[in-house]
Design goal:
The chain has 485 residues and is an alpha/beta fold. It has three domains: 119 residues, Rossmann fold, CATH 3.40.50; 178 residues, 2-Layer Sandwich (Beta-Lactamase); 146 residues, Reverse transcriptase/Diguanylate cyclase domain (Alpha-Beta Plaits, 2-Layer Sandwich). 45% of the residues lie in helices and 20% in strands. The chain has 16 helices and 15 strands. A five-stranded parallel β-sheet has the order 2-1-3-4-5, with helices on both faces. A five-stranded antiparallel β-sheet has the order 7-6-10-9-8, sandwiched between helices. A five-stranded mixed β-sheet has the order 12-13-11-14-15, with helices on both faces. β1, α1 and β2 form a beta-alpha-beta unit. The longest helix is centred in the middle third of the chain and has 39 residues. It is elongated and about 115 Å long. It starts with 11 loop residues before the first strand and ends with a strand. Bound molecules: guanosine-5'-triphosphate. Guanosine-5'-triphosphate (GTP) binds next to β11, α13 and α14. Guanosine-5'-triphosphate binds next to β11, α13 and α14.
Length: 485
């Protein structure tokens, strides 16, 4: 690029905007600053001009492209500008900052963040030309690369997945100039959750943005970069809070000494799920193309971290569900036989340790075969569910009801002696006898009750209680028998 040699020979500039009003405004406001200022409406016109005469500066006014940017056409223009030694300045709307790294892939492009007042725009263009574009800042890139390495370490610690989002934020907040880092995740179409934050004391994203429930519908969703990036999937760079057009938001940020906010979209899976990284800076910071590439890599890592944490949560839930299925009787919802055996072993150990009594009750529905035979299996099933519900309703919360077989159940009753166990069994018998069963006659149960003795094996107690239950059947049913010791 050829810098202006003297004030008398101001450089030649081309200003490209699809919007006539913007072209007029720039021509009137900034025309006097250039030896020649040519305004054009399309990339083709700009390319023709650059081919026919020497152009020092090409200003791409991207605000007019909100409804769709022809990246390939503008990219070709950047390629041609770099071939002609023409400096390129993109004036990019803050909500579409991803256009900057996208254009950077075609060649060197400096940027300014819009909206800009006309006067400020002329100053930026002139400044840009005088300093010969923005120099890359290796120190900032080094710092960003160091953050990336620390982020990889933070993610590699899979032993503490629940704290991963917080670790990721703490790592992001260590980038020089970042006062606060936050991670947002879309949990549903209107549920944007703050999953982690770290930074300067007193800076709290919840307080800044208000209640989580309204975040995705907040009027600031078009203004605050963390929200814009998560909701639209666009890189959003607000380099001055007042540019967002939300005075209250600007005041909140400036009160906290925040002068720049960057929102980087985060992809959570191949689909539409997404989130964002939100970095708040105390000072403005210029990003080189390498910086943008590193920020994109950080967003990928953050996406991986969130996905991993989510997968860990899913696996935990799945494991809990498998355990529940493996230990629960599908028909009645009470503990199944296998779980019952485990519970009895556990309670026997506890009873011994604390020298507390433990009672076991086994009960069986009387002549249940007749229910099935007369009314059908479906009515029988419903009766079994009703028995489980009725008995569950008369037990203490510390008692465990178990379905040990087809129409046989057991109750493990901690801190319960044989005498008290007899009372519980009697309560069960009376409750079942007093219940109306849908679709069939009244039902009764027979029960056997026993108390764990000394160092008795729980299996032995089960045998004694089953024998007592058999005696209750022989005694005419609808009664309770105490197990012999
Ligand atoms: N509907 C239904 N019936 C079941 C289920 N499991 C076992 N049964 C039935 O329960 C009945 C048990 O019959 P028996 O063992 O002869 O005992 P009973 O008819 O209750 O007679 P007593 O126990 O001697 O009073 C059988 O008809 C089984 O088919 C089940 O899950 N659903």
């Amino acid at each position: 690029m050829s810098a202006p040699s003297a004030a008398s020979s101001l450089p030649v500039a081309v200003f490209l905007s699809p919007e006539p009003a913007r072209r007029d405004a720039f021509r009137h406001g900034c025309g006097g600053r250039f030896l020649r200022l040519l305004v054009v409406e399309s990339a083709e016109q700009a390319a023709e001009l650059m081919a026919s005469e020497s152009v020092d500066l090409l200003v791409l006014e991207l605000e007019g492209y909100n409804r769709g940017l022809d990246l390939a056409a503008l990219g070709q223009l950047v390629v041609s500008a770099s071939g002609h030694n023409t400096a390129v300045l993109a004036v990019c709307p803050f909500t579409h900052a991803s256009w900057i790294p996208a254009l950077n892939r075609y060649g060197p492009v400096d940027y300014a963040i819009a909206p800009l007042l006309d006067e400020a725009m002329c100053d930026v263009a002139a400044e840009h030309l005088q300093r010969g574009g923005s120099a890359a800042t290796p120190a900032s890139l080094r710092a960003l690369l160091a953050v990336r390495t620390r982020m990889q370490d933070a993610i590699a610690d899979i032993d503490d997945l629940a704290r991963m989002p917080a670790r990721v934020c703490a790592t992001l907040a260590s980038f020089p100039g970042v006062a606060h880092a936050a991670l947002f995740e879309m949990k549903a179409s209107d549920d944007l959750q703050l999953v982690g934050q770290a930074g300067k004391d007193g800076l709290d994203m919840e307080r800044l943005l208000g209640p989580a429930a309204e975040r995705a519908r907040s009027p600031w969703r078009h203004a605050f970069p963390g929200l814009v990036a998560a909701l639209s999937g666009e890189l959003c760079l607000l380099d001055a809070p007042e540019k967002a057009g939300e005075p209250e938001l600007a005041m909140n940020l400036l009160t906290q000494d925040i002068h720049m906010v960057l929102g980087i979209p985060v992809r959570l899976s191949g689909g539409a799920e997404r989130g964002s990284i939100c970095l708040m800076f105390e000072q403005q910071h210029w990003f080189s193309p390498e910086d943008f590439a590193t920020l994109a890599a950080l967003a990928q890592l953050a996406g991986f971290a969130l996905r991993t944490a989510e997968m860990a949560r899913d696996t935990e839930q799945l494991a809990a569900q498998v355990t529940r299925l493996a230990t629960t009787d599908a028909l009645t919802g009470v503990a199944n036989r296998r779980r019952g055996e485990e519970l009895l072993m556990q309670e026997a150990r506890r009873a011994r340790r604390y020298h507390a009594p433990l009672a076991l009750i086994a009960f069986d529905i009387d002549r249940f075969r007749q229910v099935n035979d007369r009314y059908g299996h479906a009515v029988g099933d419903l009766a079994l569910r009703t028995v489980a519900a009725v008995v569950g309703g008369v037990l203490r919360s510390s008692d465990q009801l178990v379905r040990t077989g087809g129409e046989t159940f057991a109750v493990i009753a901690p801190h319960t002696s044989a005498i008290d166990g007899l009372k519980v069994a009697e309560k069960i018998r009376a409750a079942v006898a007093g219940t109306d069963f849908a679709g069939c006659d009244r039902l009764t149960i027979s029960a056997g009750v026993g108390q764990l003795t000394g160092d008795e094996d729980p299996d032995k107690l089960t045998l004694r209680v089953d024998a007592a239950l058999a005696r209750a059947k022989r005694a005419g049913r609808n009664c309770v028998e105490l197990a012999m010791s």
